[in-house]
Amino acid sequence: MQLRAIEMAYSIEIQNKEDIAQLIATGVNDKMQVLTICTSINSWIASNNISDDVMIPLTVVFKFIESIK
Which residues contact 13 (CB under 8 A, 6 or more apart)? Predict the structure, then answer.
């Protein structure tokens, strides 16, 4: 899964990974959209200098999902 790859790349733990995965699974239509959202999450983590465990705000994920519709 892409979220696990993000965790490994940054040596972090996304504490609400299951909630995010569920939002993505119910909010998109195909694998390309999943990749787009996960790329956005990756960019959000990088731009916020996250280097520890993190709870990604679900509002952020909702915005990413809405942006691809």
Answer: 7, 53, 54
